Amino acid sequence: GVQQYAGPCLIRVMRAKEKDAAVQEQACLAIRDMCFMDKEKRIKVGNYGAIGAVVAAMLAHKDSEAVQESGCRALEEVCDIEVEEIKLKICDAGGFEAVVAGMSAHIGRVPVQQFGCKLFRAMISGTDAKVITMRNRAGKAGVIEAVTAALRGHLGSADVQQWGCRALINMNSSCTENRILSGTAGAIETVVGTIKGNAKDATIQEFAFWALNNMCSDNDKNKTMAKSAGAVDLANAALKTHSDKTAVIDKAKTTLILLK
């Protein structure tokens, strides 16, 4: 229908008006809306060149909060966990680098941090070799540092805390290099701070302990940092506070086993 023609036309407008921040913002939002919860449209929009256009907009308008936010929202909606082709296109277009730059430039903007973390989590979900390669590329692009800064800067935002931890879960799954980067970036202490600052939120507790466990797996330095930061006491406290939450109990017990 109409969207069959709207997609290519929209990309042409973005290219013709590349210096106009307002046009880029509205175009990114239109791309987000086109793809909303629709796998087929995500694939089509990706084929139109929308991914490259959004990344170009974000790189050209780093100082614009509106473009960075709408760009993060667009890429997060275009990205489909189940469609490897889309994730690879975002990666190859420089999506990691563009979103890291946007998050760093607008650290105080919750939506930029939230949707950036959600995108990172989605892009590196999975266990196949290509996903592992993308995790390494994400690590080299500064994703761990960006997520750590988001968590540290928005302790009061449940969305940033949840999605930041979920991004770190995937970043540190079966990836030795990213565990080392997480330790160096201060992600261990930051996630322990998330656990401490959100003691009553079962969802955040689950994902934060999970992230901590992945970062500490097969990494003695990270284990030592987690112990020093108070992770053992927090895990024991979580078992009492969330005694009826199976997911929290499972992750907190795993933390105690790793740090014994």
Which features characterize this protein?
0% strand; 79% helix; single chain; 260 residues
Summarize the topology:
Layout: H1 2-16, H2 21-35, H3 39-48, H4 50-60, H5 65-78, H6 84-92, H7 95-105, H8 110-123, H9 129-140, H10 143-153, H11 158-171, H12 176-185, H13 187-197, H14 202-216, H15 220-229, H16 231-241, H17 246-258
Helix pairs in contact: 1-2, 2-5, 4-5, 4-7, 5-7, 5-8, 7-8, 7-10, 8-11, 10-11, 10-13, 11-14, 13-14, 13-15, 14-17, 16-17
Give structural notes:
With 260 residues, this protein is mainly alpha-helical. It contains 17 helices and no strands. The protein has helices at residues 2-16, 21-35, 39-48, 50-60, 65-78, 84-92, 95-105, 110-123, 129-140, 143-153, 158-171, 176-185, 187-197, 202-216, 220-229, 231-241, 246-258. The mean pLDDT is 95.
